[in-house]
Amino acid sequence: MRRFERANGHAGLPPASTRADGWLIAAILLVLAVYIAILASHGAEGVDALTDEGIGLLANTIPVVVCWIATVKARRMRGQLILTALAVTSSAVGGISYVIGDFAEAGSAFVWLAGASQLLFYPLILAALALLIYRQLRGLSLAVALDGVVGGLGAASMLAVVMAPALDAAATGPLTLSSLTMVAMPWLDLLVVAVVGGIAASRTLTAGRYWAVLVSGLLLFAAADVAFAGQILDGGYRVGTLLDAGWAVGLSLVAIWALTSRWPAARARATGLWPLALPALSSAAGLGVLVLASQVAVSDLAINLATSTMLLASLRTVLAFRDVGRMADLRRLARTDDLTGLPNRRALYTDVRLSLALGADGRRALLLLDLDRFKEVNDSLGHDVGDELLVLIGHRLSGRLGSKDLLARLGGDEFAILLDNAGRQEAEVMAGAIRDALAVPFTLAGIALQTSVSIGIALFPEQGADLTSLLRKADMAMYKAKATRTGHRVYRSADDSHGEARLRTLQELRVALHEDQLVVHYQPKVQLTTGEVHGVEALVRWEHPSRGTLAPAQFLDLVEESGLMHALTQIVLAKALDQAARWVLQGRPLTVAVNLSASALIDVELPQRIGAMLRARGLPASTLLLEITEEFLMSDRDRANDILSRLRETGIRIAVDDFGTGYSSLAYLRDLPIDELKLDRSFVQHMADDARAAALVSSAVSLAHSLGLIMVAEGVEDGVAYDELIRYGCDQAQGYHLCRPVPSGELERWLVRHREGSVVVRS
């Protein structure tokens, strides 16, 4: 009972409701335990009708009471719960009528009522299931739908084999209410198992927080029907065995689900291996039935169901291969510079981090190249000539590098080279060779162009242990080489002209954390299909006493380097959740997204701390969405899976920020519990004039939806991008075209204007 209380409590339900639900569940379990114990204790002396049937009546009646209590208290899913309560009531009435008729020898009236009531259970529970999943069918991808259908057909084919004797026997004999019941019940059981199997096999369809309890109850109910039919055919059914408890336990589990379904549910089911394995198991079940049919006689129904399973599983495999191809194309496009065909900045960040991690004991040298006076080429000869020059430079640079060296174009006229097994001397020799190679004239547009380049060099590991540090120091050295016209320069500590300013800013930052100078601005996330706003992103700002409002880019790196990220994260979370609580009191609940850095997620106590912050403010866990980066997901997969799973267990949702700029492998989308992808602005901003960028956006949206994830586009800065995202089926968008990050008061005024239609979001 305490487990249910904890699950209820963190969702924000009143303590009294929590305790009442817990006691109801405890009562159900206690009655079931007594009933099962009595049935298990029967020996040769037979059955005590009064005791057995009395406790049996109680075991079948309590689920009815609990279902109707849940229906009366429900604030959501009321239609589904009413149908469920009617189904459980119908089944209980059938069982009670049978007991009364048998005990009182009352004749056919009670037998007729028992049969009709038991049959009515199936259409009612199927209607409840249909209503549960109806709203989730919108936007359901074909792949996910096929997973559900394959799962349902596979489960039904196996059950058809087991129930073949009952199905055959029920179809023969005179048509009476009993024979009609015997004919209908196996078929209805088959249908229920197929629907339940489809829900279980789907990665996105769910029936509430404790959907597995409902699935278990219905499967156990069907299993009791199958066992009963088998015993009836063999003439071995006897009142007072453990089989009698099967229906009571099944109905009780359904009642427990009904009671807990009014608790706010987590958005999506877990995305681990089990949902992916279920369609495969269903396919194996269909194949097993067909193999069995080649050896022994199997009903046509089972063969047809198994054949349908295999055909649809084959179609699902074709779709899977198509998705794999799309993922490969997406990976290649995301890592490749459009102009030169070289690896781009994303590839550099991925490959260099991997190289440094795998070769921590080796030497590396990072060379940052910037062409001199390249703007003059564009201005005098045109951008097309400038682009062609960059392509030729890329080819010439590639010819100078070894097989283990990495060359990438960072953008514009900047290139980066990571030299493998190179120290200061090797790096300077390579820099000289590159300058000599680029000094040889290029012939373009009938003109011989001679180029020069400035190169900054940073050495690993002595001058930096990560790519960010190496790039920063190579950049300082490159600008020093450009200013002194020396051609190339290895970083020296004297090049860091910002050292004194950095120390001063660090001290001011410590004061800012202590004196509450940090504020949170909010940027709305707009539903593209409806224009509604259900969530915002919380973004920290520093109200500096002399420099004004500072954006995160101006101080977050320093926060990270100085070890202050934990304190900053706590401040931002507290301010964002305080504001979310105020919005709830104002009658406008909004989901708040908060960015978490990799260093903040190292804290093993983070899930408990966040849970305590939510409970202290009376907020449901669904109020909070945590945004993390791909870098964290890939730096330590086991730790990421552990902490994200613990956060998801509390009901907090997880989003991947800056999707497409991090690690090249997309395997984490399959293995880790993720709800949402946020497409990086570098993809969105170039959709209108770059077909490759548009293809990347379209592919990313399709990929997200095929995995049952929400796709959010960042950096929407014009109406054209907004309309294109709608066309591609993107779910949500945020950006300056909609609203800049603003203080909470200004956001509230924007929301009012937005609802009144005065904020235009279309082009």
Write up this protein.
This protein is α/β, with parallel strands linked by helices and 763 residues long. It folds into three domains: 2-136 and 206-267; 345-497, Reverse transcriptase/Diguanylate cyclase domain (Alpha-Beta Plaits), CATH 3.30.70.270; 527-755, Alpha-Beta Barrel (TIM Barrel). The strands form three sheets. The chain has an eight-stranded mixed beta barrel with strand order 8-9-11-12-13-14-15-16, surrounded by four helices. The longest helix is centred in the middle third of the chain and has 36 residues, at 300-335. The radius of gyration is 33 Å and the shape is elongated. Residues 1-12 and 265-274 have low confidence and may be disordered.
Descriptive terms for the model:
TIM Barrel, alpha/beta, eight-stranded mixed β-barrel, 763 residues, Alpha-Beta Plaits, 28 helices, disordered N terminus, 3 domains, five-stranded mixed beta sheet
